[in-house]
Every structure is written in C-alpha cells, then in structure tokens.
C-alpha cells in the first residue's frame, strides 16, 4: 500500500510540472522570436543608413588622385579601375577596382583607397620593360626577368632583342638559379646603369648560347662583344679598357669583335685605318 501511495504521489507531482514546462518552452520561443525581430530591425537600419551614405552628395568624389603612372594616362587608369569622377566614394569596391587594375598588362601592382570625404587615391606600379625576348613570338621582359606582355611595335622602341632563351629557362629561373637567365639579367642591369660603358639603348641584340655564353650585337653594323659566362662586372671593366685602347689608338678606327670570354684576356678584331694592316690586336 505504501508503495502505491508513493507512486501516485510521484504521478501527481509530474502532472503538476507539465504547465510549468509549457510556459518555459513558450518563453524560449518568444525570446528567440524577439531576438530575430531585433536582428531584422537592426539589419534594416544598417541597410537604410548605408543607402543614405551611398546616396549622399557629401561623399561624391571631387578628386581621383593617381600615383606611380608613367606610361598609362589618368584616363586609362580610371577606365581600367572603373572609377568615375562624381561617384560616391563609398560605392567604390576597393578590392574589385584593385583586381581590375592588376589585370592590366602594364600594371605590376596596385592599391585603391578612400580619403574622406571626397577623394579616391589610386597608386600603381608599372612594369619596367628592359628587353624584348624573341621565342617565335616576342614578349616584353621586366627588370625581374618576368615576361609580362606580348610585344607590339608601339610598346617600346630601343630595347635590345634577346635570342636563344626558352620558356623553360625563364620559368625555372624563378625557382632555381639559372646561369643563362641570370647572366642575361646581370648584363641588362649593367647596361641599365646611366654611366654604363655599353648602355642597353645601343645594344641591338643579345645572343644566348649555352656553350659560348652571351654575345652583344651593338650599333647598326652589328659589331659584336663576346662576354661568355659569368664575371660580367669584371668583363665590363675590361670592355672599358678595350674601348679606351681603340679610341686612343692611331691605327685602329673601330672594331668588328671584342672577345671578353676569358677574364684574363681581351682580344680585339679591329677595323684598321686605311694605311695600316694586320688581323687583330690582343690587349
């Protein structure tokens, strides 16, 4: 009997708890609903505030500042970025504008930012072409050895044309040391110096041979300077000595070839004055 009474008591207690559980559940549902409603209200307020700012004339761009442009015009850059004068600066998607700019073949890197209340600042870094690489089709090479654009006649005038490099040479030079590609870049950097003994602007062709190394063809009549492999800084100093020797010589008018392949030796195949004879002079 005692057990039956206890069981009945427990059943009664459980029955009493049911209304309390329902109220508790209802409270949770109402709380979640209130939270969702508040979230929707706040979100709509943010959207409304954003629309007000974006449509406000206070943030209309009165200036688009371009930095770092040398080859490209301001108009070219604004069209590429799709940034317009008078547009609200808050409506400019900075990341998208940056990606558009970096898709341009002449732009190496770009950044776009706002300057409140009415200015958009675009800063770019253009590729600096240093040579044309001839690999069946021609490409522009920058100072870092990257091929950044297919060459066209209007792109650059006076750049040396490199023959003998392959796509594999250039691709692997980014990951591993490459005596051929690194040598070409060393020579181009030496030639880009304002006081270089043989500036790049007078170099017509750079011939690359895996056995013989690098040969420069200079001037219209294609005089050649054989540089071989490595030690190009020393060889340019030797070239300075050789050219000084030619300039101060009474019997040498010019040269056909200067061979600097060996660091310890300079071999000149001279163009002699009419009253002189001989094959070549070793300095």
Describe the structure.
- The chain is of the alpha/beta class and 283 residues long.
- It folds into three domains: 2-55; 59-126, membrane protein fhac (Ubiquitin-like (UB roll), Roll); 129-282, Rossmann fold (3-Layer(aba) Sandwich), CATH 3.40.50.11690.
- 39% of the residues lie in helices and 27% in strands.
- It has six helices and 13 strands.
- The protein has a ten-stranded mixed sheet with strand order 6-5-4-7-8-9-10-11-12-13, covered by helices on one side. It has a three-stranded mixed sheet with strand order 1-3-2, with helices on one face.
- Strand 2 and strand 3 form a beta hairpin.
- The longest helix is centred in the first third of the chain and has 54 residues, at 2-55.
- It is elongated.
Relevant terms:
3-stranded mixed sheet, alpha/beta, 39% helix, 10-stranded mixed sheet, Ubiquitin-like (UB roll), elongated, 27% strand, 3 domains, Rossmann fold, 283 residues
Summed up, the domain count is: 3
Mean of residue pLDDT values: 85
Strand content is 25-35%
Task: State Rg.
Answer: 37 Å
Q: Portion of residues in helices?
A: 25-40%
Q: What is the molecular shape?
A: elongated
Q: Tell me which CATH architecture of the largest domain applies here.
A: 3-Layer(aba) Sandwich
Strand order of the largest sheet: 6-5-4-7-8-9-10-11-12-13
Low-confidence stretches: none
The total of helices stands at 6
Going by CATH, the homologous superfamily of the largest domain would be: Cell division protein FtsQ/DivIB
Class derived from helix and strand content: alpha/beta
CATH topological fold name of the largest domain: Rossmann fold
Largest sheet: 10 strands, mixed
Order of helices and strands: HEHHEEEEEEHHEEEHEEE
CATH class of the largest domain: Alpha Beta
Cα distance spanning the termini: 129 Å
Number-wise, the strands total 13
